[in-house]
Amino acid sequence: MKPNIAIACQDISVCFDEYVALNHVFLDVPEGQTIALIGPNGAGKTTLLNALSGRVPLASGSVLMQGADVTKLPIHLRVKQGLGRSFQIINIFQEMTTLENLRLAAQPMAFSNQPFWRQVSAWPELENKAREVANMVGLDDVLNAPVSSLSHGRQRAVELGLALMSDPKVLLLDEPLAGVGQAEIKTTVDVIERVRKGRTVLLVEHNMDVVMRLADEIVVMISGEILMRGTAAEVQNDQRVRQAYLGETEVVHA
Ligand SMILES: Nc1ncnc2c1ncn2[C@@H]1O[C@H](COP(=O)(O)OP(=O)(O)OP(=O)(O)O)[C@@H](O)[C@H]1O
Ligand SMILES: [Mg+2]
Questions:
Q1: Mutational test site, ligand 1, from 47, 177, 225, max ligand atoms within 8 Å of CB
Q2: N or C: which end of the chain has fewer CB within 10 A?
């Protein structure tokens, strides 16, 4: 039986003026799987996540969630349909605490379409949800610490927590280990391992050891196009992939 496809793009193109950042890309992500998206700098990985989440306009093509066309839906309505994402650059309020950041992430969802008097009563739910998420991403001991005082790895965990506040079924993770020091990589990967259970993940990551550990399949992008899709072994043995990475170290230790 064919697996359900949690999120897909069909024939999408994204242009920045004359520059074609995505060129007629087709990709589907089966439910429950973790697909890693790799490729050299500027390949279009972040742009693809932006296209899926509704952050950039499409020049052509469509985005589907569970088979339903969401191309015309703005970001917050895609979130409502079960989409969550994290960013390549840390995107949190540094002076606020872990709990404050998490609560803030949930407010637009908790309060949308609700009359004002409902807002106050939603607070305990928000607080509980924020604590539950903090626990999931291993931040129990720093709930009230300003995020600026946390290590890079733990700031990444806060960011992951923001995406989890809406209970997404699909997670788009853009280099969740960017800037994380060697000593913290294992803990951060453990957190990703934990939160991806029961979810579908599209993961952009340069660290091939991490990709090997997490990904069911790997998709290789170059110059706005998908070069190939396959298992770790297939990707590592592919001549075109090796050429695309010539001069880069990530794929070389096959
Ligand atoms: N808002 C924008 N305006 C103009 N050009 C853009 C914009 N966003 C991305 N680009 C260009 O599109 C191309 C793809 O960028 P993108 O950020 O998707 O690459 P990437 O694969 O995520 O690279 P990296 O590994 O460096 O994060 C790059 O050449 C980039 O300069
Ligand atoms: Mg990027």
A1: 47
A2: N
